[in-house]
Design brief:
Structural class: alpha+beta
Largest sheet: 8 strands, mixed
CATH topology of the largest domain: Nucleoside Triphosphate Pyrophosphohydrolase
Number of strands: 8
Oligomer: single chain
CATH class of the largest domain: Alpha Beta
CATH architecture of the largest domain: Alpha-Beta Complex
Strand content: 15-25%
Radius of gyration: 36 Å
Helix content: 25-40%
Length: 294
């Protein structure tokens, strides 16, 4: 080392810088060891006291029917309809319908019923100044149409039978898929979940676990790459292996669940899920705020 220092003092400036660079490079190489190699990305399994990572999917079937209006909403809509009908311009029948046609007569009769419902008999289309249909109501019934058929009720066959596996039930509500499977040696209702494997991302794990748990017969869409909730063990929990459970939200577009390992499955509303999780209050408290009340 003394010889190198002496050489640096005697050497020209440019050569001195070159010798100093070589000396620092040799020193760094000699001090390096296998332990200083770049660290690999940590795997998802529990190790070195770090919690195990798991993902769960809250699979949602959105409402397929509009919600039934409340009495206040019905009164408000009727009031707005009366105001609109009071101040609207007369409808140009001759422009849209051929005079004397069946369609014109049908529209006039239907408009007369709407006026009676909004106001009272003898007003609007029911007054003596309103156009008179050329075809009587009895004659119109003889023609008939697909529109005259009675519409189905808001409660379907699955609602009457209590089939909780059907996606056609509770059309006004949000439904969520839950599986009944073994948890800690006993049967319990859970959302589809599984462990994060290898170095996969959380959203990739959520999609894979959903397919493995519920089959390939569903067309689903995971809303975001980010989770909507996290269930983590408390800080004062025992030193046993801990688990962080990340929840993802997804929608079902078509198909049906075909669970492989679960003993049962159901599409339930928030209130129905709460009833089935009475004995597991901790799990319910962790997921209830992620579900819709309607």
């Amino acid at each position: 080392m003394a010889t190198l220092a002496t050489s640096l003092r005697r050497a020209p400036p440019r050569l001195a810088r070159h010798l100093a660079t070589e000396a620092s490079t040799a020193s760094a190489e000699s001090s390096s060891s296998p332990a200083s190699a770049p660290a690999r990305r940590r795997k998802a399994g529990a190790s070195e006291g770090k919690p195990q990572l798991r993902t769960a999917v809250i699979l949602n079937r959105t409402p397929i029917l509009t919600r039934t209006p409340t009495p206040f909403e019905n009164a408000f809509y009727k009031y707005q309809q009366r105001i609109q009908r009071t101040f609207h311009n007369p409808f140009p029948y001759d422009f849209y319908f051929k005079p004397g046609s069946i369609l014109e007569s049908r529209f006039i009769l239907e408009e007369r019923e709407r006026e009676r419902e909004a106001f009272f008999p003898g007003f609007g289309a029911d007054s003596k100044w309103a156009p008179t249909p050329k075809v009587s109501e009895e004659d119109l019934k003889k023609f008939g149409s697909e529109e005259d058929k009675a519409m189905k009720g808001r409660r379907g066959e699955s609602d009457e039978k209590g089939d909780v596996r059907s996606l056609d039930r509770a059309g006004e509500r949000n439904l969520y898929l839950v599986l009944r499977k073994s948890v800690g040696g006993k049967e319990a209702w859970r959302f589809p979940e599984g462990a994060v494997e290898g170095e996969e991302f959380l959203h990739e794990s959520a999609e894979r676990n959903l397919r493995e748990e519920c089959g390939e017969n569903m067309d689903t869409w995971v809303v975001s790459l980010n989770p909507i909730g996290l269930v983590a063990p408390p800080a004062d929990a025992p030193s046993a292996p801990k688990t962080n459970l990340f929840f993802y939200k997804a929608h079902i577009m078509a198909g049906q669940a075909r669970p492989s390992d679960a003993s049962d499955f159901a599409w339930l509303t928030k209130q129905e899920i709460e009833a089935r999780l009475k004995e597991d209050a901790a799990y319910w408290d962790s997921v209830k705020d992620m579900l819709s009340d309607f």
